[in-house]
């Protein structure tokens, strides 16, 4: 999900007047350092790093900074172009992100995405208004393929639109180069100034020609050479590790997933194995035979691994949130509580491990395989000062941030995305089976078990209202049902924790096209729903389910999910689907869907 209410910042009392660009003469300006860099100015988008990842896939170096970065620093950074991201704030709102007005006088090629387009249009004296029609989902837009931005494309393109505010009057000097099905301006350009804006999100896969559009902007508009390669990034990461570690020892928490394993291997290449102490924490929420698999895989690449079996410590663990003690993990319902308890307990366990190794606590660093997306989801200031918390990553709790501030955390992969980590792992010589393991969160099965002790956390009145709204989608043998639990989602660049809608059908072969259309439509119209799922089996013809299976973290629930997850993994391997399917998380759902057997669903 992306921004919902986008306007231009109200902190700027008046728009700068007399704005003008002076196009450079001759060749496009080249950065003075080894690689040309594009500056991504983050207006608060949870997915600014998706832009970053796509830019890097095109072999262009990118740097993310807050939108209010002073132009003086931009000039000192010798950037070749600027991309302005989307963001969740209202343009005229009190909390709208500030910016340096001189940004729009610096003469660099510029691409504004969603909020970025609206900001560009506003600054250059166009109009941005809240319209009566929201656009959320995939749409086929009409484009002017004579524009350099759309060079090589057909006259229609499918993109992801998700916005409430729109450009209602294109700024002087600009022209409309794309239009949505509802007639709303979907892209603008001033080719002379090399300034472009798109209302949609080219950085996401749902925008089918998005990569081509980004490539056109970077290569044809801004003149990037595309020489930012994986090899050069690995060398830079090794250099940074050596500088940060110095003569200290390093403790590595290895979960068994790709990230922590690559982190350990990269550290080994940078400083050798003698000063690396690798630990695998078995908290009881691992996949089938996880610990055995991890030990063997890392031993094969020359890394010794100590396994800590601390299942009971985790189940009994508590933490403090907003000054109050939480219940033990084994009694927790709220996903955020579970995440924070697990994150803090990881830190406690690591401190104990340091003592067991008899290391000097003042001469050891804690290494983690944290990625950029992990930090974005936790609204870490390492990435962005504007992002809102969606979910707390177990590697980025308040305690981890404190250790980071003390200089005791090293995160060699903090600027990498998952696909880049896989490539790095292969280059470091890790076995393909390990490198291509599906993502598995550090907290493991604990966060893939949806805990519940009662149906619904909304009032009876809200339940009835939502169920009634869903009845409108009962048609052609398809039934929409309000489910009695909530899930974490992202809406408008912000965290949401709302109810699920279950779709079921009495047709032997589901009408997937209609089901997908409903899955897009329902969250837009039914505001208490943030996720739509399909329920296999017999159709559910009631407007809402009233019962749940009481579910907490315990041996039984973990064993049930562990067995189910293993069956899925074996089928992926058997059918050669591990690389073709990016992720297939198996979730234990606390509902029996009316079977009256008091069991779970998957």
UniProtKB/TrEMBL annotation:
* SUPFAM superfamilies cross-referenced by the UniProt entry: Adenine nucleotide alpha hydrolases-like (SSF52402), Class I glutamine amidotransferase-like (SSF52317), GMP synthetase C-terminal dimerisation domain (SSF54810)
Arranged from A to Z, the UniProt key words for this protein are: ATP-binding, Glutamine amidotransferase, GMP biosynthesis, Ligase, Nucleotide-binding, Purine biosynthesis
Q: Known NCBIfam families for this protein?
A: guaA_Nterm (TIGR00888), PRK00074.1 (NF000848)
Q: Which Gene Ontology molecular function entries are recorded, alphabetically?
A: ATP binding; GMP synthase activity
Q: In which pathway does it act?
A: Purine metabolism; GMP biosynthesis; GMP from XMP (L-Gln route): step 1/1
User: What is the superkingdom listed in this entry's lineage?
Assistant: Eukaryota
Write out the GO cellular component annotations: cytosol
Stored PANTHER family: GMP SYNTHASE [GLUTAMINE-HYDROLYZING] (PTHR11922:SF2), GMP SYNTHASE-RELATED (PTHR11922)
Q: Where is the GMPS ATP-PPase domain?
A: 228-437
- Report what the protein is called: GMP synthase (glutamine-hydrolyzing)
Pfam families attached to this UniProt entry? GATase, GMP_synt_C, NAD_synthase
Residues involved in ATP binding = 255-261
Lineage of source species: Eukaryota, Sar, Rhizaria, Cercozoa, Chlorarachniophyceae
Known partners and oligomeric status: Homodimer.
EC code(s) of this entry: 6.3.5.2
């Amino acid at each position: 999900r992306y921004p919902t209410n986008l306007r231009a910042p109200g902190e700027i009392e008046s728009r700068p007047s007399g704005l003008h660009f002076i196009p450079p003469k001759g060749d496009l300006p080249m950065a003075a350092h080894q690689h040309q860099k594009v500056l991504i100015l983050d207006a608060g988008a949870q997915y600014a790093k998706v832009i970053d990842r796509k830019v890097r896939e095109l072999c262009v170096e990118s740097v993310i900074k807050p939108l209010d970065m002073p132009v003086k620093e931009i000039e000192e950074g010798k950037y070749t172009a600027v991309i302005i991201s989307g963001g969740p704030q209202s343009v005229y709102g009190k909390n709208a992100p500030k910016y340096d007005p001189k940004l729009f006088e610096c003469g660099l090629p510029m691409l504004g995405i969603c909020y970025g387009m609206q900001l560009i249009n506003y600054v250059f004296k166009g109009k941005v208004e809240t319209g009566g029609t929201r656009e959320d989902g995939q749409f086929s837009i009409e484009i002017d393929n004579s524009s350099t931005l759309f060079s090589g494309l057909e006259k229609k393109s499918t993109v992801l639109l998700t916005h409430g505010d729109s450009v209602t009057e294109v700024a002087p000097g600009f022209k409309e180069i794309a239009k949505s099905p509802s007639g709303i301006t979907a892209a603008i350009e001033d080719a002379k100034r090399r300034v472009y804006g798109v209302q949609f999100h080219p950085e996401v896969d749902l925008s089918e020609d998005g990569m081509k559009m980004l490539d056109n902007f970077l290569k044809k508009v801004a003149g990037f050479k595309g020489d930012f390669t994986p090899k050069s990034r690995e060398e830079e990461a090794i250099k940074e590790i050596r500088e940060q570690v110095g003569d200290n020892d390093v403790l590595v928490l290895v979960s068994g997933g790709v990230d922590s394993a690559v982190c350990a291997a990269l550290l080994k290449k940078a400083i050798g194995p003698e000063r690396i102490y690798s630990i695998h924490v078995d908290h009881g929420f691992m996949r089938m035979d996880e610990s055995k698999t991890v030990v063997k895989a890392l031993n094969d690449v020359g890394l010794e691994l100590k396994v800590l079996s601390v299942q009971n410590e985790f189940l009994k663990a508590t933490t403090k949130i907003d000054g109050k003690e939480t219940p033990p993990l084994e009694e927790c319902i709220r996903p955020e509580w579970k995440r924070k308890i697990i994150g803090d307990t990881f830190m406690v366990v690591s401190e104990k491990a340091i003592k067991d190794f008899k290391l000097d606590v003042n001469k050891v660093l804690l290494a983690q395989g944290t990625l950029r997306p992990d930090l974005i989801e936790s609204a870490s200031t390492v990435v962005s000062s504007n992002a809102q918390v969606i979910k707390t990553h177990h590697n980025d709790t308040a305690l981890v941030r404190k250790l980071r501030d003390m200089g005791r955390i090293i995160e060699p992969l903090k600027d990498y995305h998952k696909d880049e980590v896989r490539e790095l792992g292969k280059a470091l010589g890790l076995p393909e089976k390990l490198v291509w393991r599906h993502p598995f969160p550090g907290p493991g099965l604990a966060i893939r078990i949806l805990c519940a002790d009662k149906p619904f956390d909304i009032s009876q009145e809200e339940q009835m209202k939502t169920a009634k709204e869903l009845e409108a989608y009962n048609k052609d043998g398809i039934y929409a049902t309000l489910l009695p639990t909530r899930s974490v989602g992202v809406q408008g660049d912000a965290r949401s924790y709302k109810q699920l809608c279950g779709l079921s059908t009495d047709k032997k072969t589901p009408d997937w096209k209609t089901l997908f259309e409903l899955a897009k439509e329902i969250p837009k119209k039914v505001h208490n729903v943030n996720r739509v799922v399909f329920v296999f089996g017999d159709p559910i013809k009631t407007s809402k389910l009233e019962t749940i299976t009481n579910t907490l973290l315990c041996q039984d629930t973990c064993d049930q999910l562990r067995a189910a997850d293993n069956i899925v993994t074996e089928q992926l391997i058997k059918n050669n689907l591990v690389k073709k399917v990016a992720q297939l998380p198996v979730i234990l759902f606390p509902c029996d869907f009316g079977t009256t057997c008091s069991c779970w669903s998957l």
